[in-house]
Structures are given as C-alpha cells and as structure tokens.
Amino acid sequence: MANLVLQKAAQTLSDFDDPQWRAEIRRLTPADLSNLLSVSLARLREAVKSLEDRFESKGEILELMCISAIAQEPMLIFGQPGTAKSDLVARFAESLGVRRFENTPAMRDELSPPAISKDEDAHNIYFEYLLNEYTEPDELLGPVVVGDLVKNPPSFRRFRQGALSEAHVVFLDEIFRGNSAILNALLSLINERRIYEAGKVIKANLFILFGAANHPPISDELSAFYERFAIRVVSAVVGNEDGRRERLLKKAWVAETEKLNAAYDPFINFVEQKACLNDLLVCNRAITEMWGGADFDKHDPIFRQDYIHIVNILNNDKRRLCRIDDRKFVKIYKLLRAKALYAHQGPPVIDDLKLLKHTWVDFESQIPLQNLIDSEIEMRKKLRNTQGSN
Fold this sequence. Notes:
Blueprint: H1 4-10, H2 13-16, H3 22-26, H4 30-52, H5 59-71, E1 75-78, H6 85-95, E2 99-100, E3 125-130, H7 137-141, H8 146-149, E4 169-173, H9 180-192, E5 194-197, E6 200-203, E7 208-213, H10 223-226, E8 231-234, H11 244-261, H12 277-289, H13 301-316, H14 326-344, H15 366-389
Parallel strand pairs: 1-7, 1-8, 2-3, 3-4, 4-7
Antiparallel strand pairs: 5-6
Helix pairs in contact: 4-5, 4-12, 5-14, 12-14, 13-15
C-alpha cells in the first residue's frame, strides 16, 4: 500500500502541491500508483477543460501539451504571430500552479486577481524568454557571480535563482533563433535535464519545455535540434466556421479585460489552479511502471507490433513526411503511452497511433502524413479482424 499520508494528501490539491512529495511518488510501486492515478488524471483533464473554455479552437493543442507534459517530452508550437502560442503556455503553467519567479513582492491593487509572490510559493517556477541571435547564455542560465572570479583562487558560478535551470515549465519563443551556445545548453537540458557550469553538472528542475516559432527551421545546422521535438502542432488563425470568430471575440475580450484591470502586471495569475506538477509525476510514473518496467515484454505486444510496422512504413516512404530515428522511436513510444493514459487510462491501442500525425517534418507534410497514418491504421485493424476470425 502507498503511504497513507500521501494518499490522503493526494485527495486535496493544496496538500498535494508540495515538492516534498516528489521523492515519495518516485518510490511508488505500480499497485500504489493505481490508488493515486484516477485523482491526478481527473485534475489534469479538468485543467485542460478549463483552458478549452478560455481559448477558442485550441482543444487539440492543449491536450497535446498535457500529454507532452506527462511524458516530460518537449513540444513545438508553430503559428503566425497573434495565434495565442505564448498565452497558451503561460495559462497552462498557471493551471498547474507554476508561476513566474518574483524577486520582491509588488504593491497590488485590491481589485486585481490574487498573485503568488516569492515568499508564498517559490518551488514551482515558470520561465519564458524570446530568443534572438544575440541572446547570451547569461540571460537564460543566470548572470556570472563576478565576486567569485576575483577571489583567490577564482571560481566560476552563476546566480541561478529564477533562471532556466531552476524552472519547472519553460517556454522559449522563436526558439530556432538562438545561437550555438544557447542551443548547446538547451540540448543538454532536453536530453539529460542538466546544465553544465565550468565543468560542473547542475541538475535542472525541468518538467516540460515548450518551444514556439513561426515556421520550421530551414538550416541543416538546426536539424539535429529540431529533431529533439517529436511533437509538433500548428496554432492556426481561428476561422469563422460555426460562429468560431464570435466565440473567439467573447473569450478574448474577457482575457483582455483581465489584463487591463491588472495593469498588465506579469506576476498576476488569471487562471485558477486545477492540477499540479505532482499530478504530472504520478502519471509519468504510471506510463513507465504500470505498463512497463520489469514486465515490459508482457505489456501491449500487439500494439508494439502495429507501432513498429507503421514506423517502418513511414521511414520507407520516399516522400520523407517525417523522420523517426532510433531515439525518437523510443520517445514517441513514451508519448503514445502518455496519450493512452490521458485518453482512456490504460495501455495504448491502435487508434492512439494517430498521435504520429504530429511528427511531420514541415507544413506541407501534415496532410499526406495524416492520410498515410489513417490508411495504415485501418489496414492493421482489418488484418487483426481477419486474424481474429480465423
């Protein structure tokens, strides 16, 4: 049985939203996890639902954001300026109780929404930055402590409070405009959850990194970095079908009014917290332990065959609609498990392979890739039905 105190705390969001529980969650057995999973999943789904009510026609993006967060895999959001890319990530972070780091409490109008200051909550940090070719590592990783450089002997150390390495949810806008020094630091952050500082390894707190850009990178120099993001989605301009523009205006006007009333204070939070990072951690543990771990071979063998078959079809397609190398092959499998958990709280089934439509290589590949995946899924279903009837 799981720690009874932990189980009790998990029933109440305010009690469960405490970093002290994380070590305990990482020690839970599959049987223990099952006792917490339904509660955590319900909260995460409620967080997504509350954001769907706030944003028009962004439901699929929000679900993918939650799935990526459960898998702790980075995600890219493409779209024209003004399509709510940064706002989606900021409000998603707020729904998880993850807020911008604040050095000093600010004076606040009593009519403003409640804010969380450094003194009240400093353990769940949201970090966002707009990159360009001149962005310096100090801007993301923290400034160098100059006093340490003039000591005898000198040492190199950064002031990391509130910096990228301390953040739990990270959003980097125009992510492909960063220079090589920035991209190298991001690679180690994404791959290993660590930052290197003068030969020392600094463990990062990162749960999920979201990147945004107007379009995929063209340069071959960025292809390796681009391929670290298995899931890609486009935040499109809202069309006028079924009154969507009218609903957009209504929802956006509420959000705009909130910002005006708050005097555009960056530390004001407009979205009620519905879940927490520990809910993500419970779900992450579930996808790695409840349907895997030591008994990996016993779980979803038929689904794995379907997954391998379709990936082989995609890799052999001469149009090169997507690129799935060995590393991404494993990462996508983890994302498929996260999708299955979020969608139906179980191991993956063949329809979950529709997630592969978000692995396109460029905008022109999206529709052909989706058609190919849908076709292959239907063929595999027919094959399974034929085999089952014989």
